[in-house]
Amino acid sequence: MNLLIPVDCNKRHEALLTTLDTSKYWAFVELDEGQIVNCKFYKDRNDIEAWVENVIVINDQEYTWQFLEENISVFVAPTQRSIDEIVEAFLLKNLKVLTK
Q: What is the mean pLDDT of residues 37-62?
């Protein structure tokens, strides 16, 4: 399972969730059995060669149609900002799911 998170920097423990328009990097987080096994940062989302399963956004006003069109699940993290907080909330099913 993997998550794609728009963030403000490329440092694993310092990166914070941003809006899609202001993101400087994309954190591609790979999960296995509830643990982060890999976290890579990309300047451009199109550079990610793996299939993206889930994307996290900061609010439900984000422009997410492109993800939904690609059958990528979109989740809103209204209060979580760090990668670890987002992953924990995702695993505990505490994030809001956006639908088409």
A: 96
Q: Specify the pLDDT at position 99.
A: 72
Residue whose entry in the numeric block shows the structure tokens 């399963």: 53
How far is 2 from 63, CA to CA, in rounded Å?
A: 20
**In this prediction, what percent of the chain has a pLDDT beyond 90?**
98
**Domain CATH for 44:** 3.30.420.130
pTM: 0.95
User: Pairing mode, if any, of strands 2-7 and 73-76?
Assistant: unpaired
Give the whole-angstrom CA distance, residue 49 versus residue 4: 12
Q: How many structural domains compose the chain?
A: 1
Phi, psi of 87 (to 5 degrees): -60, -45
Distances (CA, A) of 1 to 4, 16, 20, 62, 73: 11, 21, 21, 23, 12
Question: Would you say residue 100 has pLDDT above 80?
Answer: no
